[in-house]
Specification:
CATH class of the largest domain: Alpha Beta
Helix content: 25-40%
Strand content: 15-25%
CATH architecture of the largest domain: 3-Layer(aba) Sandwich
Number of domains: 2
């Protein structure tokens, strides 16, 4: 069975991401593994390397949220010490992890993505889809998915995974490209969705290249997006897909979940 790996620091914001992950797991018919990275110094001092009480409480709370008489998704717990990225990569390889879920540490999800050392460690060490859930984000059906794409290649694996998510939710996928100096055709990407994966609810929309940040926010609002998807290019995500010096602030104060797919 597929498994969703939820990375949690046991904060209130992380608990919100856990509730979101629970709904995603129900949709994907997947299990959940809660993973908490212990502070090595604190663990050595206390001598405690077992699952902390807060992690056990989180597991119990999620099990209650499954509803009366339900025993799925199955929820497990793990803890670890050391480099988070390497630990996560080992889990992805060993535990059939289909998706990683993380909560945002601030109201600006992109600040976490750009500046958070733990986040960057996970992105750099593992090739697995990662879903970032901002604080206060409540799960709802993903009717409209915006897939920002540089169109430089078809991105077979990313398209395959996104098709699975869209099919579960019967979503409309909007492949979006920011107009720049380079001209690339959306046809290879659309061909993958429609002809190879057999998913027809997909279309392409071009975004003007001027005033990038403002245009992006207007576009996301105009299509009433429920999920934003981007490709990770090893430290070059935003430079590759979104030209302009203001790209880091693209989703500032935006409350939508962000799915990062490996290229």
């Amino acid at each position: 069975m597929k498994t969703i790996l939820l990375l949690t620091d046991l904060s209130k914001k992380a608990e919100n991401a856990a509730l979101y992950a629970l709904k995603v797991a129900e949709k994907m018919n997947a299990g959940i593994t809660l993973f908490h990275s212990l502070n090595v110094t604190s663990a050595l001092v206390s001598g405690e390397f077992e699952n902390p009480r807060e992690l056990r409480d989180l597991k119990e709370n999620l099990e209650k949220q499954r509803g009366p008489g339900r025993d799925k998704p199955v929820i497990n717990m793990l803890t670890g010490c050391g480099n988070l990225g390497r630990n996560v990569n080992n889990l992805v390889l060993d535990k059939n992890i289909a998706l990683i879920v993380m909560g945002a540490k601030s109201d600006d999800i992109i600040s976490q993505f750009i500046f958070g050392s733990e986040t960057n460690s996970v992105l750099d060490e593992t090739r697995c889809p990662i879903l970032f859930v901002p604080a206060g984000c409540v799960y709802k059906k993903m009717q409209t998915i915006v897939f920002f794409n540089d169109l430089k290649k078809a991105y077979h694996d990313a398209v395959d995974f996104l098709t699975q998510i869209a099919r579960i939710n019967n979503s409309e996928i909007i492949v979006s490209h920011i107009k720049g100096n380079e001209i690339h055709s959306p046809e290879p990407c659309l061909f993958l969705f429609k002809n190879i994966n057999g998913y027809s609810r997909v279309k392409f929309m071009q975004i003007p290249g001027e005033d990038v940040e403002e245009k992006l926010m207007e576009f996301i609002a105009s299509v009433n997006a429920d999920l934003i998807v981007m490709i990770h290019h090893q430290h070059l995500l935003f430079g590759k897909i979104i030209p302009g010096s203001n790209s880091k602030n693209m989703l500032y104060h935006h409350a939508l979940p962000l799915l990062i797919l490996p290229d």
